[in-house]
Amino acid sequence: MCDNGLLMGYPIFGNILAVLAQAFHDQLNCVSTSTRVANKVEKRQNTEEGNYSEHWSLPTATVPLPGDKISIHIVDKPSLEYFNRNHFLPQLPLVLKNSITHWPASSKWSPTYIVQVGGNRTVPVEIGSKYTADDWTQKLMTIEEFVQTYMKSSIGSQVHKEIGYVAQHMLFQQMPELMKDIRVPEYCCLGENQDVEINAWFGPSGTLTPTHYDPKHNFLCQVFGSKFVRLFPPSESQKLYPYEEGTMLFNTSQVDMEDSNAIMKFPDIATATYADILLTEGDMLYIPPKWWHMVKSLSPSFSVSFWFE
What we know:
Elements (H helix, E strand, L loop, with lengths): L1 H7 L7 H13 L45 E3 L3 H9 L5 E4 L7 H4 L2 H8 L3 E6 L9 E6 H13 L8 E6 L1 H4 L1 H4 L17 E7 L4 E5 L4 E8 L2 E6 L29 H4 L9 E5 L4 E4 L4 E6 L3 E8 L1
Parallel strand pairs: 1-2
Antiparallel strand pairs: 2-11, 3-4, 3-5, 5-6, 6-13, 7-12, 8-11, 8-13, 9-10, 9-12
Helix pairs in contact: 1-2, 5-6
């Protein structure tokens, strides 16, 4: 009941519903050993500058594009001044290495831990291959039910026929105890105001966010697991065949990057300039406003996004 109030309303009276919901969860304390999911996280120590595509292969289903590739720089813990001058002001993407390793979440979080902290909490789950699919829907379920149904099968031998995804959810407002494990990147202070929208992206291998753009600056932080990201600069917008203005999908591309006939259906995409990036745990990707991006998880994954103007 408390979670339903949080999901349908706005925190009031010191976020009392979140406090009560967590107290109820702690009292129930019913996380069984069956929910102890192994945290299989891919690790790497690559600090080279340049384009990740030189060091890894595209996901099997992703369509390779013949257009020119952009080289996205990779910098280890850049200074605020460096980031502002070279990326924030000119609005150029950047992979920031080792910029979230100080988060407690970096050493604590796994599917098992998330269940232990909030297994009885109710969250909205997107069900379907992607939000543009005809069969896409949403369902409320507990975090434990979500992990058991979608995450456990993702890292075990069983493959669930559907994809479930806790996507773009204000989980940290709902569960302040998880907020204690992360930090708002200092680079967000470069924005016009101090309002930062923080969202959770928690799901199994195979989750897919179609190519789209956001109107705000975005830091996408990879806590555990790995994700593939394909970026397109704003200059390539028309080559991405956006849905019509005035529709709910106006900021989304009609091009399915996993359709082998994509270039035949949308020929201009063949000349689009783009970048392919691999994010693994500890990476933070700066995505400037209006930069198109497709995101696919390559393993069980938890990402945190910070949007600001």
